[in-house]
Amino acid sequence: MTIHRHLITGFSNPAVKAARSLREKKHRKREGRFLAEGLRLLTEAREAGIVPEALWLGQQRDPHPLVDALEAAVVAAGGTIYETTSDILSKISGKENPQTVLGVFADLPTSLDALDRGRSGIWLVAQSMRDPGNLGTMLRTCDAVGAGGLILVDQCVDPFSVEAVRASMGAVFTVPVAQADWGEFLRWLRAGPGQLVGTSLNTSFDYRGADYGTPCFLLIGNEAQGLPPAYEAECDLLVKIPMLGKADSLNAAVAAAVMAYEVLARQS
Amino acid sequence: MTIHRHLITGFSNPAVKAARSLREKKHRKREGRFLAEGLRLLTEAREAGIVPEALWLGQQRDPHPLVDALEAAVVAAGGTIYETTSDILSKISGKENPQTVLGVFADLPTSLDALDRGRSGIWLVAQSMRDPGNLGTMLRTCDAVGAGGLILVDQCVDPFSVEAVRASMGAVFTVPVAQADWGEFLRWLRAGPGQLVGTSLNTSFDYRGADYGTPCFLLIGNEAQGLPPAYEAECDLLVKIPMLGKADSLNAAVAAAVMAYEVLARQS
Predict the structure, then answer these.
(1) Which residue, of A72, A106, A140, is where some domain finishes?
(2) For labelling alongside B152, which of A71, B44, B178, B187 has CA 20 to 30 A away?
(3) DSSP A122-161
């Protein structure tokens, strides 16, 4: 077996430039790869059976059995291991105090057809989600409630951005993600069982008293605009989360979680 | 009445430097002031009776009755109005596309003694919260559930940072915030009625079946470490939010909201 192991100390090395470029969406799209940082995230990936194509390790790292396990998995998969300086890790990650473990992963599938709707009674559907932190947090919530996956409808932020991957705390590797436009999603949804539930200000029906079906698809609208009226009209059920204060909405990831835990409790 | 209105076109104007410096915590502490951006946030503030000491307006702004109302409120309070260029607003806010309305506010009170515990049956208590987005989101949730306020225990991120203020969507102006160390908080808490509830992995007691008191103080631990054991030991009740996936925790602001909405429903 050939082992691909390199020591890189030069900032202008093409591998450094290629890894660093993955912080930008256009390069991720072109390369079909994304970055994930930190031993915790990469271990989540490994335990989910997902191994980076390239593993970057800081020379100053402390020995750790989980790093050894990662190295072994990358070598076994025919991947490449780069040892490098803290300064170069900073350059790749764009952070002053970079993680000492960093992985370059091949894109994960994001096709609706790859989803198994029988996998869970709860799914999250985000429409035009703009904030990578919200998207990553929703993935983390999907993991926690045992949701089947996160479906991104219309133009959402990239689920494989460094910020979304970080906020997911590794859930990007364990929770299926799909991307589709609204029409594609509706056709897929209506081709099988499933209740589409929207949260809305245009109803007086409290989310606690609602009759949730299985599987239940929880539709969360864009952070600034909420759901378009035409999308609300397609919902099988509209519910309202009580808002007792001055504002008329919750953070999108918070609303998704409050709904998801309610559905989880009612389906249990 | 003297009206303080200035046109500023020079980047080196001391007022520009002073406003810009408020993006950094050390300058906020020294000046006792903070920044808030955008017509929506400043209108939330005005409706809560809080008017900026200085109002910055972009020369290219569109006319808007809410801007007129802000100007009138600042003038009536003896504050200063600066008209300036889009480039200078960019410099102050650090953003390429700055909001055309920006306010410099005097610090809001953050003393425990200023809190009225009879104001609400729900309070959020964050311990060593590190992320300004989480803090702002928790303020927004406080507003939504009608919580009495947010109590920041130990070294938390600054609630008046630009990021926290933005994530709060204006709730920083409507939700009381207090800062205290753990000992101070406990003394204050135990001097009156109140149940301290912690979320923990070290209990099998589901949050849905728990017996919440009034007022109920929901204690949320640091994003990475959770609550220290000694803090858990002080809780009157420990509950667990179900975690069905690979990870062992939710985003801190999400956990706070799931708990707060459960308590709200049970107290209703």
Answers:
(1) A106
(2) B44
(3) EEEEEES---HHHHHHHHHHHHHHT-S-EEEESSPPPTTS
**CA-based nearest residue in chain A for residue B167:** A251
Asked if the bond preceding A109 is cis, omega within 30° of 0, the reply is no
**In this structure, are residues B213 and B236 in contact, taking their beta carbons and an 8 Å threshold?**
yes
ipTM: 0.94
| A interface test, pick of B246, B248, B266, B268 with most A CB neighbours within 10 Å | B246
Residues A42 and A51 sit within 8 Å (Cβ to Cβ): no
Which residues on chain A are in Cβ contact (under 8 Å) with B242? 144-145, 261, 264
| pLDDT at B1 (0 to 100) | 59
Instruction: Note down the domain range covering A148.
Output: 112-267
How many distinct structural domains can be found in chain B? 2
CA distance B168 to chain A (A): 9
**Rounded Cα–Cα distance for residues A185 and A151 (Å):** 8
Q: Are B154 and B127 in contact (CB under 8 A)?
A: yes
How high is the pLDDT of residue A1? 58
d(CA B141, CA A254): 8
Summary mean pLDDT of chain A: 95
Report the C-alpha gap between A31 and B212 in whole angstroms: 52
- Out of A106, A138, A169, a domain closes at A106
